[in-house]
Amino acid sequence: MIRIDDAVVTEQLLKDRLGAGREVEICPRAKLTPLALDYLAANQVQVSRREAAAAGPRTSAPAARRKSGERKEFKGIFCPNIVIFDSNDRINYAEMERYVNWLIEAGIHGLYPNGSTGEFVRLSSDERKELVRLVTNVNRGRVPVLAGASEANLRDVLRMSEYYAGIDVDAISLVPPYYYEISDTSLFEYFAEIARQTPLDVLLYNIPQFTQELTLDIMEQLLPFERIMGTKDSSRDMPRLINTMHRLRAQRPDYVVLVGCEEILCPSIMMGASGGTIATSGIVPEVIVDIYEKTLAGDIEDARNMQYRILDLINLMLLGVNFPEGFKTGVAVRGFDVGPPRQTMSDEEREYLLKLESQISCILKDMGYDVKGARACPVTHLPSIVDRT
Predict the structure, then answer these.
(1) Is the pLDDT of residue 380 over 70?
(2) Which of 230, 289, 338 is CA-nearest to residue 327?
(3) Over the Cα atoms of the chain, what is R_g?
(4) What region, left, alpha or beta, does residue 119 occupy, with left being phi > 0 and alpha being psi -120 to 50 degrees?
(5) How far apart are CA 145 and CA 100, in angstroms?
(6) Confidence of residue 57 (pLDDT cuts 50, 70, 90)
(7) DSSP, residue by residue, 196-258
């Protein structure tokens, strides 16, 4: 009989420890993940739990973490990267690798595949796995990886989190369940059950534009679960963001709060946000990182000027066309072949994107960037904000 003392028992752990064995003994309070349960059933493995007395004194240590045993620091700018498709509507591995490397070399502090900008709802489950594996392979541990794991139901969320735990993902991001609205009590239980079973840390994602609101009351009730390490707030509500930091950090000073709205990045950092998951960082990573770093350093005048200078760029990409096609157009202007859209578009929308490309090019050129193609842009005499010398 094989004995396993880990607090969370995953499929991979069973494969590594059991070998040809068909009996396993686990500690009384160990959690078996869904894939572990499937593995046990498929291989007819007998499971027994030790008596509580035999387990020794219980400590307050959290469930075993991945490899190093340490939680990575979730601070700075995390890029919710776009997905680049080829002419056959498949993920373009070569161009995605070039794009991810470019983001890291430009100074991005973390990667965030399968976010809203990454069109996770337009990808199949296998494609979501594919994409995250690609990102982690290219990353090679250089920066933390926060992966979206918002599947259609709790069981699939746990399956996906277990898969991510095996490929060097550092934490998962979760929105409230979408389509069906559930009670606040059920919403609490949903996140609580995930926190009890997931092998990875969890970042709660509040985006009331697309799912029901994740209230501060529920978030406060979830604070005892150490696996829940923070939140991303895309509500576009600055008072809510400030109250989140004020209220939750009173009990958990290390609670991570990331802002998901680039228009308020500078003031959010000034008020104590840990950083941001900023879609525009996929187009001008240099500028978004500079806004964060200058704000932290107290260079508020420069940070504020840069914040205002990017507003027109944000509005062009965010408004007037299906999200996130405006942001993908911005990535194309930076020199990447973003491929065809996955969402169907009308001829008028395609024409709009051509005009948008020209406008984005002008704004980037005005900021001091080299852009592809000759552009007839108005002369503004504004100083360049690009300074990487």
Answers:
(1) no
(2) 338
(3) 22
(4) left
(5) 12
(6) very low
(7) HH-SSEEEEEE-TTTS----HHHHHHTTT-TTEEEEEE-S--HHHHHHHHHHHTTT-TT-EEE
Between vectors from CA 191 to CA 195 and to CA 152, what angle results, nearest 5°?
A: 110
* Pairing mode, strands 256-259 and 201-206: unpaired
Token readout for 3 is 């004995």
Residue 321 tokens read as 């066309």
Q: How far apart are CA 165 and CA 157, in angstroms?
A: 12
CA angle 186, 192, 194 (to 5 degrees): 105
Neighbours of 234 (CB within 10 A): 23
Residues 6+ apart with CB under 8 A from 262: 276, 278, 279, 280, 281, 288, 310, 314
pTM of full prediction above 0.85: no
pLDDT tops 50 at residue 67: no
| pLDDT for the residue numbered 62 | 36
Between the alpha carbon of residue 18 and those of residues 32, 74, 91, the distances in Å are 15, 35, 36
Q: Give the whole-angstrom CA distance, residue 236 versus residue 56.
A: 49
pLDDT at res. 378: 57
pLDDT for residue 376 is more than 60: no
Rounded to whole angstroms, the Cα distance separating 191 from 212 reads 14
- Which residue type, as a one-letter code, is found at position 40? L
Percent of the chain topping pLDDT 90: 60
User: Is residue 203 scored above 90 in pLDDT?
Assistant: yes
If one counts every other C-beta atom within 10 angstroms of the C-beta of residue 16, the result is 10
CA distances from 231 to 8, 50, 188, 255 (A): 23, 37, 15, 8
pLDDT (0 to 100) of residue 7: 66
Q: Is the pLDDT of residue 348 over 90?
A: no
Alpha carbons 46 and 324: distance in angstroms, whole number: 49
- Distance of alpha carbon 274 from alpha carbon 270, whole angstroms: 10
The domains of the chain, with CATH numbers, are: 2-53 (no CATH), 76-283 (3.20.20.70)
Residues 6+ apart with CB under 8 A from 70: none
* Closest-CA residue to 192 (of 180, 182, 204): 204
